[in-house]
UniProtKB/TrEMBL annotation:
Entry keyword annotation includes Chloroplast: no
Protein name (record): Bleomycin resistance protein
Matches recorded under InterPro entries: Bleomycin-R (IPR000335), Glyas_Bleomycin-R_OHBP_Dase (IPR029068), VOC_core (IPR037523)
Cell inner membrane as UniProt keyword: no
Sequence ranges assigned to domain VOC in this UniProt record: 6-118
Record keywords: Antibiotic resistance, Dioxygenase, Oxidoreductase
Species this chain originates from: Phormidium nigroviride PCC 7112
Family recorded in the similarity comment: Belongs to the bleomycin resistance protein family.
Domain of life: Bacteria
GO MF annotation list: dioxygenase activity
Entry's Gene Ontology BP terms: response to antibiotic
Amino acid sequence: MPNTIEFCHAIPVMPALDLSKAIAFYEQQLGFIKKFVYDDYVGISRGSVEVHLWLCNDPQIPENTSCRINVKNIEELYEEYWRANVIHPNGKLVVKPWGLKEFVILDLNRNAIHFAETVL
């Protein structure tokens, strides 16, 4: 019997201490668009990437949460986010030994988001 299972895509689910402030940050600073709000759960997107946010009351959770979003034209995105002043001080654009050019931002809840582009 052939295996018909296909993984389609992943959606990061990030904690947020204040959903209204988080939505505003993602829209105004990162260029995302709100897709839906359902009680304490929010969906946002930019291009074909979707991120979900859930209301969290423990600040240690977002401080220990991260995800990576692969993009095209990373230099252009880096410049956009540099102008928005959201680049992590230790997250400048670099080429990693595993073949990715990447940089890191912290959202207002201190979730780390790695943006990357394959360079191999």
